[in-house]
Amino acid sequence: MSSIVVFGAGGRAGRAVTAEASARGHRVTAVVRDPARHAGLPGVAEVRAGDVGDRDSVAEVSRGHDAAVNAVTPASGPEALAALGKLDAEVFVRAADALLSAGPPRLIAIGLFANLLGPDGRPIHDDPAAFPRELRGFALAHTAGLERLREARDGVDWLMLSPPAALDVAGTRTGVYRLGGEDLPDGVLSYADLAVAVVDEIEHPRHHRTRVSITGVTTVQAGAARARPPWRAG
């Protein structure tokens, strides 16, 4: 059994990870901004207040854990992003810095499909036909966080999992997924299967200090009601 701290445990990805890890017998600490709003998180050993962008906060809540999961994002979709007003372009960089300096030895971060590569070899966020221009700043902020992880030479053994554009909110757990490289994958992935991959990589690390794409084995159906772009990790 491992002890796992999950930042952003109140979001979709974070809740899925806490549920999967708890079901496998791991001790899970759920980190959220307001514990009073998330007292009912299933299976967690403890709910803590914390800020993934603050080194002291990360060091405090991570102490004694074997692994950390970063599923934090500042916005849950285009509308929420617009409501922020001005996006903090350093939000993912600060999170990377805090986790690299004060986090447990194994780190799994949830990425964004928009900085994977399209058929033309360009990042998806550089193609306005594939990704909304008004959200490009959010994608670039995500990319800056990824680059900060890549700059790390030693210390935390990190992995970023970047899901496809079709992330199924209501999808069931199949336990089946495909990992790739830098190219945008086809298919639909459920949050439950994203969580399976996260916990698999904590239990049996296969990828080290790199970013890989992840998708399910179901192809995208035209007009699929439950598939949504993962603007949000959590």
Structural write-up:
With 234 residues, the chain is α/β, with parallel strands linked by helices. It starts with a strand and ends in a 6-residue tail after the last strand. Helix 2 crosses helix 4. The strands form two sheets. An eight-stranded mixed β-sheet has the order 3-2-1-4-5-6-10-8, with helices on both faces. A three-stranded mixed β-sheet has the order 9-7-11. It has helices at 12-23, 55-62, 78-83, 91-102, 136-151, 191-203; strands at 3-7, 27-32, 46-49, 67-70, 106-110, 157-162, 166-168, 178-179, 188-190, 210-215, 227-228. Strand 1 (3-7), helix 1 and strand 2 (27-32) form a beta-alpha-beta unit. It has a single domain (3-228), classed as NAD(P)-binding Rossmann-like Domain (Rossmann fold), CATH 3.40.50.
Output the number of helix runs. 6
The portion of residues forming beta strands comes to 15-25%
Question: In order across it, which strands form the biggest sheet?
Answer: 3-2-1-4-5-6-10-8
Helix content: 25-40%
Based on CA inertia axes, which overall geometry fits? globular
Number of domains: 1
**Rg result:** 16 Å
**What summary fits the major beta sheet?**
8 strands, mixed
Computed structural class: alpha/beta
Instruction: Indicate the CATH topology.
Output: Rossmann fold
Q: What's the CATH H-level homologous superfamily?
A: NAD(P)-binding Rossmann-like Domain
Distance between the termini: 24 Å
Q: How would you state the average pLDDT, rounded?
A: 89
Unreliable sequence segments: 220-234
CATH class bucket? Alpha Beta
Overall CATH architecture:
3-Layer(aba) Sandwich
How many strands appear in the DSSP assignment?
A: 11
Order of helices and strands: EHEEHEHHEHEEEEHEE
